[in-house]
Amino acid sequence: MMPFIFHLKTLFFVRCSFNKEQRKSPTKVFLNEKQVSYTVENMDFDKVYCKSSENMSEVADESVTLIVTSPPYNINNNYGNVHKNGRAVKSKGAKYEDNLEEEEYRKMLGRTFKECKRVLKQNGSIWINIKSRFVDGFIVPPFWILDFFKDMFLKNIIIWNFDWGGSTEKRFSPRYEFVFWFVKDTNNYVFNLDEIKVPALNYRPDRFKSQWKNPTDVWYIQMVSGNYPERTAHPAQYPEELLERIIKVASNKGDVVLDPFIGSGTTSRVAKDLDRKYIGYEINSEYVKMCNERLSLPPKRRKKQTTDIRPLYFYMDNEELANYVRKQGR
Ligand SMILES: C[S@@+](CC[C@H](N)C(=O)[O-])C[C@H]1O[C@@H](n2cnc3c(N)ncnc32)[C@H](O)[C@@H]1O
Prior knowledge:
Blueprint: H1 2-24, E1 29-30, E2 36-37, E3 47-49, E4 64-69, E5 78-79, E6 82-84, E7 87-90, E8 96-97, H2 102-119, E9 120-130, E10 133-135, E11 138-140, E12 153-161, E13 176-183, E14 198-199, E15 212-213, E16 218-220, H3 240-250, E17 256-259, H4 266-273, E18 277-281, H5 285-296, H6 309-315, H7 318-328
Parallel strand pairs: 3-18, 4-9, 4-17, 12-16, 17-18
Antiparallel strand pairs: 1-2, 5-8, 6-7, 9-13, 10-11, 12-13, 14-15
Helix pairs in contact: 3-4
Residues 52-54, 70, 72, 79, 96, 108, 234, 236-238, 261, 263-264, 266, 281-284, 287 line the site of S-adenosylmethionine.
């Protein structure tokens, strides 16, 4: 009995000293038994949470520099089915059906975006990739998204243009999506333009000069096709190249990049490759597994090798192209 009491006393003493230590530095604040409020000092980074981003209590106020995401489109994508090369091959009972009532869909997004604004730093920005939907024969453009960000500043609406996709017979085949970019403070935000400048090509490789220009608000970046090494089984994966440009321009090394609808983990993969910290939220546990597996492997970005400078403009990243150009003595 004595040793047991001794142990209890020791434990009590250790616990009290620990608590005193803990009180010196900022720590978790227990609001009630379940809810914990985090400060930057005790937050976990480089983690994908398997839960809805409507509540991101694991992320401290004003701790994130960049939020980039593509929300569920509400076009009946059966996230959770079995996919191969990006196509649904077998249904095993969708865990999340992308066909909420429109009102519920927007309420859900509203709760997530409110959380996004809470965790965003004053000099931070939110980038949202979304496309027009085709519902009952009508186009529904995504400009309703602006209603959620009336307290922020819209800096650009980027047109992400690509070549592939379904063909239509009675209207033009859709070949673009939007990326809306909002900042908290219109005079103070991260924008590393030099990091993402593109070669100012004049389409005469022999006359190419190492001049670099603003890539403009129309971005030509291919969709992730079935034969891309980076392709996962997620039905709505966006390309790493798109994320690379956004992460480089809107954050610095060591900054935190958050994706509240992370899917297959594209955002976290690129953030990690570019030495940023990442946090993700995803409600489908299969996709969380996919993210973690993708993060545990080396990057699989598609690289195309060719001697013609013009295609390189589209397939190489800036640094690679700059090195290539220098080597060629152009
Ligand atoms: C358009 S996909 C994102 C795809 C991602 N950009 C990629 O490259 O793989 C949207 C994702 O949001 C997830 N999702 C839907 N509602 C959610 C919620 N409330 N919280 C977190 N994730 C959610 C879906 O399961 C789906 O994987």
